[in-house]
Fold:
Amino acid sequence: MSVTALECNVLVLNQHFRAVHVTTARRAFALLFKCAAEVVHWQEETFHTHNFESWRELSQAREHFEACDDWVRTVSFEIAVPRIIRLLIYDKLPPHEVKFNRRNIYARDRNRCQYCGGKFSTMELSLDHVIPKSRGGHAVWGNVVCACTACNNHKAGRTPREAGMALVKRPVRPRRNPLIQLKLRHEKYRSWKQFLGAAYWSVELKE
Structure:
């Protein structure tokens, strides 16, 4: 099986077709196989639901899918990665708050150093306290930003003013989940928009 395909993002709906979180294709397939969820397939301005077997059968007809779709290959068959699944017995909604974690901070800042403005890979960025912890700065949305290695080393334990640096933009708490906003920029996730109401934007992505 393709490890890359199994790590693709899948939108999860509750029993009432309300978005609750995002999971991996690996977890989505496990839920489908256990009959705990069904696929919600958006096509031609409407959606159809499928269990694991009917989804596998549909996957044999490539005309139902697009070039941007992802596929998992087994010894005996290929199956498309669903973009959306619906939990069959879960009817709750998640808390309305964006979780403060490293992944959401990187997404909020779009992997750009907030001092030089350069875009870097996740491995090339670190988190910087604008007001250093040694100076009373706290780990909160308004005091933590992405910084590249060069800028972080130059700033060191100083404030931006002391280091002669300026922030590209003032860090704030996101009102909407920044990871979801990034995903919606990609063509292959456009079907998610049909199920993303205002109540969804603060949903937390699962690790």
